[in-house]
Each structure stands twice: as C-alpha cells, then as structure tokens.
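We modelled the chain as a single entity of 114 amino acids. Its sequence is:
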Amino acid sequence: MQHTSFDSDNVNDGSSNMAANSQRVLHEPNRASAGSANRWLAAVVVLQSLILIGQWLAPSLPVAHAQIPDSGAQLQLIIDQSKATNARLDKIISILEDGKLQVHVAKSDEDKAR
C-alpha cells in the first residue's frame, strides 16, 4: 500500500479556479467605470466645496426675531381709535342738527359744455 499525502492547498481541481475568477470579477471594477466614477466623485466634491465657500462668503441675512403680540396694547389702540372716530362723528352730527350746513351744487362737466 502506497501512502500519499493530501495537501488541499496544492490541489487544482478547477472548481477553485472558477471561484477565484468569480471573486476577481466581483472585486475588480471595470477600468472604464472606475474612471467615470472618479470623475463624478471629483465633480461632486468640487460642487460641495463651492457651496461651502458661498456660504462662508455670502453676506448674512438679518435674523427675524419672533415677538409675542401684546393683546392688551392692541385692544387699547383699538379703543383709542374708536374714541377718535366717535368724536368726529359727534362733530358731524352736531353740524347737521344745528342747520348751519350750507350745500352748494357745483355744475357738472356736462352742464359746463352746453
């Protein structure tokens, strides 16, 4: 009986060759697509850099500060304006009641043309 040693690393049965080839295909990207991907990556990096520089160099916009409305002051303003309107209306009513109002009818443009 002859004794042979079995070394699994030295066996070349074809199936290991196929596995190595498939792994090589999966891990090695196509040269043309790799160059294209690098160009796209460079373009994205350049655009992001331009956006960042634009944000640093652009003048800052004024910040809007939210203010809580003072409803009491708003109501007081409405009341004051109502009092002023009532005073004017009272003055108009007193003029109409006294009868001191004189109305002059102006001639219209049609009457002036005749």
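As a brief sanity check on the tokenised model: The chain has a mean pLDDT of 78. The CA atoms of residues 46 and 110 lie 75 Å apart.
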